[in-house]
Design goal:
single chain, mainly beta, 8% helix, QdtA_cupin_dom, isomerase activity, RmlC-like_jellyroll, RmlC_Cupin_sf
C-alpha cells in the first residue's frame, strides 16, 4: 500500500537544511535508479501507469506535487508532496499519476533500472491485470 515517508530534516533556518534517504533506514528497497522531472506545465498529468515489479519513492524537492494512487482493490489515495523532507512510497501494481505546481521538481528513487516491459501504460490493461490477481 502506498504510504508517506518522513526523511530526516537536519539544519536550521539560518543555514538551511539537508534531508537524507538511506536504503536501510528510509527506503524499503535497494535504489537502482534515480531520475527527476522538472519544467512540467501545471495542466499536464504525468505518470498514468503502474509497474509489474518496480517500487518507487517520489519526493517533491521543490514546489508541490499531487500524487494520486489506485490500488489493485480499487482504493484511491491522494498524497500532497510539498516538503522536501517527505516522500511517498509506490509499490508495484499501483496505478499512479502526478500533477505539478509551477517550478516543481520531482525526484524518484526506483528499485529497478528502466525496462519498458515493466510498465502497464494502459488503464484498461491495469484493471484487467489486477482483476486476475
Amino acid at each position: 500500500m502506498p504510504y508517506l515517508i518522513d526523511f530526516p530534516v537536519i539544519g536550521e533556518p539560518e543555514v538551511g537544511y539537508i534531508s537524507v534517504a538511506e536504503n536501510s533506514n528510509h527506503i524499503p528497497f535497494e535504489v537502482k535508479r534515480v531520475f527527476w522531472t522538472y519544467g512540467t506545465p501545471e495542466s499536464i498529468v504525468r505518470g498514468r501507469h503502474a509497474h509489474y515489479t518496480t517500487q518507487q519513492v517520489i519526493v517533491a524537492v521543490a514546489g508541490r506535487i499531487l500524487v494520486t494512487t489506485e490500488m489493485a482493490n480499487g482504493t484511491i489515495q491522494l498524497f500532497v508532496l510539498e516538503e522536501p523532507g517527505k516522500g511517498v512510497y509506490i509499490p508495484p501494481n499501483v496505478w499512479h499519476t502526478m500533477q505539478y505546481s509551477a517550478n516543481a521538481v520531482q525526484l524518484v528513487m526506483a528499485s529497478t533500472g528502466y525496462t519498458e516491459e515493466d510498465y502497464i501504460r494502459d488503464y484498461a490493461q491495469f484493471r484487467k491485470t489486477w482483476h486476475r490477481a
